[in-house]
Amino acid sequence: MTSTPRLRARGKVRDVYDAGEDRLLLVATDRISAFDVVLPDPIPDKGRVLTGLSTFWFDRTADLVPHHVVSTDPADFPPPFAGVPALAGRATLVRKAKVVPMECVARGYLSGSGWTQYRATGDVCGVSLPDGFVESDRLPEPIFTPTSKAESGHDLPLAPAEAVNLVGKGLFERLKELTLGIYERLAETSAARGIILGDTKLEFGFADGELVLIDEVGTPDSSRFWPADVYAPGRPQISFDKQFVRDWLDRSGWDRQPPAPALPPDVVEGTTDRYVEAYERITGESFEGFRERSGATTIDDDPELERLREEWG
User: Fold this and answer.
1) Rounded CA gap, 121 and 84, in Å?
2) Which of 16, 13, 48 is nearest to 31 (CA)?
3) Are 3 and 15 in contact (CB under 8 A)?
4) For residues 202 and 218, what is the distance between their CA atoms, to the nearest angstrom?
5) Widest CA span of the chain, in angstroms?
């Protein structure tokens, strides 16, 4: 091990380590956030689901845009990261990138904050929509609804003119094209597996001078996945994402200010089940097969990941 500080950032879900030579190691922990607050209880194996699904989608969108992934194989990780059991299946070696300061969101259905905006103003991020939609309705065509990229607190919706002012006209148009194209790819693949992709959030950056897809793609943290066989507009949908946790928090009476309440064991277990089902239905691979393929031998990694943060930070 080395005493050199390596922890670059600790996000709501991911720990980011400097891996030298213009490389970073992204570690998807089992932390879960809701309403921009990190909850006190980890969701076992959630980080591996995020990593496995992101890898699946990075591979399947590489013809649309390059990505920042170098390897998810622990054998390719530099010291001191190689051979650490807690990192197996949840860590990704990536190229360093200058992050575009805008979250790129594509919506094919009217749900979440998009539904809230529509009810209040009749548009979503400045995109006007016809009257008469109900919650979870399918839109006539997918729309691009970017938001600000907040270091903490809430991301804020950006009207097209605001987004252009933030990143420039040319980059805005390219990001819109890519985001909608990637959404269509993810939605088509998911539909073939009986899943509706309500919306998805993407991030981009510049690595070695080229625009690349970064962070995560098509995960239950960044997307709304609904089982198609029980889809019914006019209400919230059963989902394979953290809406299950959000719904429990709403029922709990929590005021959405930190600290968040502890999650009951059945909510923790139910959330793990939903994440795992999303992985299995989308990829067609058993999650146990992914764990075995990635060399994962542990489940409750939160204490070990905390120890590594202290040792490497």
Assistant:
1) 51
2) 13
3) no
4) 8
5) 61
Q: What is the pLDDT along the chain (313 residues), one digit of tens a residue?
A: 444 659 999 999 999 999 998 999 999 999 999 988 999 999 999 999 999 999 999 999 999 999 999 999 999 999 999 989 999 999 999 999 999 999 999 999 999 999 999 999 999 999 999 999 999 999 999 999 999 987 666 789 999 999 999 999 999 999 999 999 999 999 999 999 999 999 999 999 999 999 999 999 999 999 999 999 999 999 999 999 888 999 999 999 999 999 999 999 999 999 999 999 999 999 999 999 999 999 998 888 888 999 999 998 8
Beta-carbon contacts of 281 under 8 Å, excluding residues fewer than 6 positions away, are: 193, 194, 195, 240
Quick one: which of 310, 291, 282 has its CA closest to 219? 282
Tokens of 110: 């009217």
3-state SS assignment for residue 250: helix
AA letter at 185: R
Q: Answer yes or no: pTM beyond 0.90.
A: yes
Is 302 in contact with 29 (CB distance < 8 Å)? yes
Query: Could you tell me the two tokens for 195?
Result: 């899943």
Q: Which of 33, 275, 10, 9 is nearest to 155 (CA)?
A: 33
Residue type, 110: L
Identify the CATH assignment for 99-242 out of 3.50.50.60, 3.30.470.20, 3.40.50.150, 3.40.50.2000.
3.30.470.20
Instruction: Enumerate residues 6+ apart whose C-beta is below 8 A from 72.
Output: 51, 55, 89, 91, 92, 93, 294
Structure tokens at 204: 């981009």
